[in-house]
Here is the input.
Amino acid sequence: MTLALRLAAKGQGTTSPNPMVGAVVVNRSRIVGQAFHLRPGKPHAEVLALRTAGERARGATLYVTMEPCCHLAKRTPPCVPAVVRSGVRRVVVAMQDPNPLVKGKGIAALRRAGLTVTMDVARREAEELNRAYGRWITTKRPYVILKAGMTLDGQIATAAGESRWITGLQSRQEVHQLRAQVDAVLVGSGTVLTDDPSLTVRTGARLNRPAARQPLRVVVDSRLRIPITAEILSRQDKAKTIVATTGSAPAVRRRALRRKGIETIVFPASRRRVSLPDLLRELGRRGITSLLVEGGSEVNSAMLQAKLVDHVRLYIAPALLGGTNARGLIGGASPARLMHAVKLRHMHIRIVGGDLVVEGDL
Here is the structure.
C-alpha cells in the first residue's frame, strides 16, 4: 500500500476534480502491475494496473488507495466491473470514497461478486493525500491553504508595502511547487495594487520559466480598483483570471474587463466586501477543489474570520522588522481575549534554505 500511495501522489496537481489514486497488483509476492490516475477522462489507476498485469491478475491481490468506483456519472467506465473481470481474488483498500455516488457501494459490489475485501489499510495516509478532494466532495467548497512569507515578528511587508523578498529563493521555489499542486490562487485587490504579482507557476533554478499547467487566478476586488494593465490580467491564454466583485463596482470597469477577456462575477456584499463564503461555493461549483490564499493581511483576516481556512503554511525569514506601522500577517481588529486566538493543530516545523516553515490545520 505504501507503493500505491507513492504512485497516487504522482497525480498531484493534475487529477482534480478527481481524487489521486494509485494501484498495485501483487501475485505470489511479485508486483505484476502498477499505475496511478493522471487526469480526468483518463483511465483510473485500477484499470491501468490490471491492464498491465493481464492474465497475471488472476488469483492476485489488488492494492488500491481509494474504493473502486461503481457509478456512471463520469467520463470513464466504472472500475468495479473491470476488477471483477480481471480475476483478482482479493482487494485491499486504503479508504472509502466519500463521494455519495460511491461511498461503500463499490466495496459492497466487490463482495457480492465473491472477492475478499480488506478495508482501512493506511487509511490516515490516504485521507491526508486526498484531503482537498474530501473537503470538496463533502462541503462543495475548495480546501483552502493560507500561505504567507513573514519575518520572525510576524510582518509580511514594511510600512511602505515592500515585501519582495522577505523569504529566500528556496522558499519561493517551494511556493511555486505548491501553486502547481492547487486548482486556484487567490489574492485581494490590495496585493495587486501594491505588488502587481503575476501569480503564475514558474520553474527553473531562477524561477524564470512558465510551467505548462497554471492554476486559475482569482482576484477579490469589491470596487474594481485594480488597473486594467495589472500583470495578473495579462496572458489569459496561458493563465486564466477571474475577478470577484460586488454590485457597487462601476459598470464601466466591468465592461473594460470583459473587453480584455476577464470574467467578472458579481457577489452579494458583506460589509461592502465580496461575500467570501459565496465566492468559495461558486469556485466549488466550478470544480475547484483546492485554493491557495496568497493575499495580504486584510484578505487573511477575512478568510480566517469566516472560518474558511483549512490549513496554514508560513515561511518565516530570520529577520525582524519591528515598529507598529509594518504590515502584520492578519489585519483587522485583534481579539480581546487569548482564548479567541486562532490555534493550529497537527503542526509541522521544518527548515527550507535559511527560512523556517511552520504549518498546521485549523
